[in-house]
Amino acid sequence: MRAEIRDEFDPDKIIRSGQCFRSRKLDDGTWMFLSTDRMLRMKREGGTDPMPAVYEISCTPQEWSGFWSGYFDLSRNYAQIRQICLEIIDDRTDTAAASFLRNAAAEGCGLRILRQDPWEMLITFILSQRKNMPAIALSVEKLCRAYGHEIKAEGIYDLPSAVFSFPSPDELSCASEPDLRALGLGYRAPYVTDAAQKVCSGALDLQQAGSLDDEALYQTLMTVKGVGKKVADCICLFGYGRLARVPVDVWISRAVTCCGGNPFPAFGPYAGIMQQYVFYAMTK
DNA sequence: AACCAGGCTGCCG
DNA sequence: CGGCAGCATGGT
């Protein structure tokens, strides 16, 4: 099918923004996005300059409106939100911090906070600790190849190599801690088995957790071993769309120092989006 | 070849 | 309580 996207949307930036680790751009210029056991292929039509942007998309209209449109958070107006962020930045008296933040908000144009699967976010960000982005992508890929199942290509698109789903809680519950250490997960292996055990047993209901407020959700997620403040905030932001949450990692910590104090609370309900602009600008 | 990576746990004071 | 060593492994 064909889809027209009018708001700010830059798949290249989204893929390199550190919120998803399986999606990528293929050699033929199409983008491949993956979420749990779903795959989407998309290609820009009619050059790159004109708005609105039109994309040729591999799924049905039902899958687009029923899933992927929500995944890309397309019902939200990011152009307007980014403008609100810029106005908040203009109110600052500290010119050095203001120009730093203004630059980040400009660099981040086209980023969106993806509405991803909570289980996939839980495991992915447990794996992410003390790793750089290529290393995270590698361990996630290993996990999918070992415990997920193959996803077949749709329609006219063919794939360069086999693509695997993200393992479901049941699929991952087959993995013992030594199995996961053998995959190279290191000290994170027992954290993953604890997460799978809690979710499979029903001790942690990720679906129902979505009805909790931000703070209760955050506290609930931290009951899993290996999930601390930063990882819990990543799951809140990228898995539950809690846009006020600000995961503080080494990069954001540097940005806070650079601004002479934490600049994010000023952005209120959009602090998490501003955080993503800053993270992207700093890691680019 | 050292040093770092989207940190967390357990222990020490 | 706050502070901090130790941690497994792949990138740069």
Note down, in words, how this protein is organized.
The radius of gyration is 19 Å and the shape is globular. It has a 5-stranded antiparallel sheet. A two-stranded antiparallel ribbon has the order 6-7. With 284 residues, it is of the alpha+beta class. It contains 14 helices and 7 strands. The structure holds a DNA duplex (13 and 12 nucleotides).
Q: How far is it from the N-terminal to the C-terminal residue, by CA?
A: 32 Å
**Helix and strand run:** EHEEEEHHHHHEEHHHHHHHH
Give me the Rg, rounded.
Answer: 19 Å
Q: Biggest sheet, in brief?
A: 5 strands, antiparallel
Features:
single chain; alpha+beta; five-stranded antiparallel β-sheet; 7 strands; 48% helix; 10% strand; DNA-binding
